[in-house]
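Annotators were shown the component list below and the corresponding predicted structure, then asked to write short factual statements about the assembly.
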Amino acid sequence: MKIQISNGRVINPATGTDEVQDVFIAAGKIVGLGQGPSNFGPNRVIDARGKIVIPGLVDLAARLREPGFEYLAKLESEMFAATVGGVTSLSCPPDTDPPLDEPGLVEMLKHRAKGRNQTNVYPLGALTQQLQGVRLTEMGELHDAGCVAFSQANAPLVDTQVLARALDYASSFGFTVWLQPQDPHLGKGGVAHEGEVASRLGLPTIPACSESIAISTILHLVRHTGARVHLCRLSSADGVALVRNAKTEGLSITCDVSINHLHLSEHDIGFFNSHCHLIPPLRSLRDRDALRAGLADGTVDALVSDHSPVDDDVKQLPFETSEAGATGLELLLPLALKWAQQDNVPLPLALSRVTADPARILGVSAGQIGVGSNADLCLFNPEREWVVTPQNLKSQGKNTPFLNLPLSGKVSHTIVGGFLIYEDARA
Amino acid sequence: MIGNPQLSPEGTLRHLLTIEGLPASVLFHILDTASTFEHVAQQEIKKVPHLQGKSVFNLFFEASTRTRTTFEIAAKRLSADVINLNVSASSQSKGETLLDTVDNLSAMQADMFVVRHAESGAAHLIANHVAPGIHVINAGDGCHAHPTQALLDMYTIRHFKRRFENLKVAIVGDVLHSRVARSQIHALTTLRVPEIRVIGPKTLMPRDVERLGVRVFHDMAQGLKDVDVVIMLRLQNERMNGALLPSRDEYFKYYGLTPGKLARAKPDAIVMHPGPMNRGVEIDSEVADGAQSVILKQVTFGIAVRMAVMSILASN
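Structure shown to annotators:
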């Protein structure tokens, strides 16, 4: 399959290049930029006038809900949502049922998700067996089966001795450990940020210091073990400040923030909007602004969808018992664009946070547009407005705080491994 | 963002879910209406026809005696048909969801739901779900709100103190877990009470509670100085021995209302309590039964206030 993308505005965030040029694709690779190989006879020419051509998005946090939670979403629906969102690589946390703690489970998932016409799936292996925080998993075997890193997802790891050993063991093989920082005790039973809104609504709380305490512990253990850690879903200003200092110190730390925390605060809960029930909780406006500044200056490396499809049965409950999580794969690009526009962030830099930067954290060759790189691409119309409605979302999860919000930026083409796997003629 | 569904675009009351956001005019309208119902209890036939032919469902997902009974009496005095459901004992234990229960009862032509639930926001969830024309009254949701309790407290305060603009009011005890306190604070600020104090240890205070418009005191003697109204809050047994409080004895010593501590307030200060009281834990029997206590008057006024709320909702 040979494809020529003509007259698009090509942005390669990794290098900062931004110019109108043609892209030539053959045999799954980009074989030419501006100038094609001689005698290039494309099977398909995509007219990309008015469109922006970028590397396919790399999403560090997308729950596909398989195995175990097929009633919430199915692999097919969520993989399709990824292609609609222009996401060509994603990593999924191990909090499935059973958790991804055995090589066989990972192989099965990889097998189900495989196929040349699909987004690349990079599973995260469970750091401890059953995510119980007691015994280590067979990380070597899991890596051989396809896991790119190891994580506890949202499950607490209470025992710091186990955590230290997990970091030591993982770093012996050079594996990165992904940790979502939250002190397991301080936020016990909590569902909302400890602050003005929870005090008003009478909701049990998770204080911001539960995050900074957990980050401090992790940073001490990173110094102690020399392990490489990726911090998932930062939510607080103090958390951003701790990571900034750790990076200055030279520690091997990276981190991400979700689209929800980048755009929303505790105030969006309004009167118990359970779409805003998220883990970690939405925090104050000051926290949100610090996350935005951190993402712009690179303290926060990546923007993620934190895609967690949930159905109405478990969302239409009182806030406390409603299931946490929001759908996000199809919102990652437009919400990255919205942030860039609102905060005057240069487009290549903003796009880097959803392409080249997360690819670097995953350690995979993605998120680039260059001659010889994989032909994983996303074309979008930056002007095209659309409204987030259940009908417009392809994910089985229709739950998002952004419901009914108009957004700019719609994916028109998604290309994975040189194959055009999604096309929206109206975009 | 999900808004507050309790006011119609024209500003009339569709549901009563929280005091927050209600204008003073709505609160005064309820209090004034309640005073017109006070005489009903003195009539030979204790009934008026305002809710004739209407079905009121008392939907209690959490145990209650006083609140459920006063709602029942209020509805019956308005000539409504009252159906009492103790849901915790039936469908919820069979796994039916809250909204399924509500749908089933709506199918039985309910006109009004009086809802108590252990979780904050349950009444909002129901109000956002029911068909137009069905009214929801929040009879207590988690730690969030108990608006009719706050309204009857305001009624009691107005009965004894006549006006709100010159008062100092102290709320004492477990503010953190109290839906009553939250509703009272909103009502008192809306009615322009110039000084609202909350008194208790930090473990029982919500973070940033000052933002609701109150002054925080940890020393009860200081907090009670020269106040006109003392509102005591119930301390639940499960809070007493753990990391929130070391013991009931120590709590009573520092935050229990005794005649000695009450002497710090104005001589004509009234003492209120939403009930049920824990004698010897948050309040000394001598105070609870003393001349300044208006606790039983609160219960009586509660019926008139709940009649007012129901009749106003039914007429909107």
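Statements collected:
1. Chain B is about 35% helix and 15% strand.
2. Chain B touches chain A through 33 residues (CB under 8 Å).
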